[in-house]
Design a protein that fits this description.
- The chain is mostly helical.
- The protein folds into two domains: 31 residues; 36 residues.
- Helix content is 88%, strand content 0%.
Length: 69
């Protein structure tokens, strides 16, 4: 991949992530009463962790299947 293309996608992803997470937090904070934020925070964090680990688990499973053949 050319460096210029990489930098474009890297910067674009960084801006989208920054503003997306900020806006998501803002609207989530506006839509939930302060008493209910704790009720939803742990499941949201757990979901983020699980979604982040899924690609690694898939890679490990595929790697193990390939080494058995």
């Amino acid at each position: 991949m050319h460096y210029r293309t990489f930098m474009f996608y890297n910067l674009l992803g960084g801006f989208l992530w920054t503003f997306g997470v900020t806006l998501l937090g803002y609207f989530l904070g506006k839509s939930l009463p302060a008493e209910q934020v704790d009720q939803y925070l742990l499941p949201i964090i757990g979901l983020i962790i699980i979604v982040s680990l899924v690609p690694s688990v898939i890679h490990l499973i595929q790697e193990n299947r390939g080494s058995r053949r």
